[in-house]
């Protein structure tokens, strides 16, 4: 019995054999495309619907006074006082150094007491009075501590200077003595990487005297 030859035409294409691998590959490609497409669509929708602070999940209102001016901010609960001052109020005189409370460059005063603002959540200061280097003096009328730092060259790179000054000013309200060792102990939380400690000590003694 003679075998019949199969005739193929555009209306009768040949059937290619399907393997398990080719089926899985086809399913994998289509499902990946679907996931990526839906993910991109969701991201685009979220970006369009949440352009500003109003869409921050869990954002809370913070009211505080900074350098004598009242401020009301809607912030993420995880925001530090340092970031609120620098990024939301543009008070960049307060520096971010180690961001671990070890260098003192971020020192500000809260109700007259010095605080490492990098270690303090902003929402902890509802209703508080915050003082930064910008509120201490002006170029035309320096605070006595600022003037003493200038007179004694108590800075080099200047990165730690605002924290040093804010800490030194707060000493007037703290129970420390006036001897060199007392001042060094009181200022031990403020690090000067340039090593201008002897000049800083002279400036503080002059301003306190």
Secondary-structure blueprint:
Elements: H1 20-49, E1 60-66, E2 69-75, H2 81-88, E3 107-110, E4 113-116, E5 129-131, H3 144-151, H4 161-170, H5 180-186, H6 197-208
Parallel strand pairs: 1-5
Antiparallel strand pairs: 1-2, 3-4, 3-5
Helix pairs in contact: 3-6
Organism: Pseudomonas typographi
Domain 2Fe-2S ferredoxin-type: 60-136
Pfam families: Fer2 (PF00111), Fer2_2 (PF01799)
Task: Summarize this entry quickly.
With 209 residues, this protein is an alpha+beta fold.
Give an account of the 3D structure.
By secondary structure, the chain is of the alpha+beta class. The chain has a single domain (60-208), classed as Beta-grasp domain (Ubiquitin-like (UB roll), Roll), CATH 3.10.20.30. The chain is 36% helix and 12% strand. The chain has helices spanning 20-49, 81-88, 144-151, 161-170, 180-186, 197-208, and strands spanning 60-66, 69-75, 107-110, 113-116, 129-131. Strands 2-1-5-3-4 form a five-stranded mixed beta sheet, sandwiched between helices. A hairpin with a 2-residue loop joins strand 1 (60-66) and strand 2.
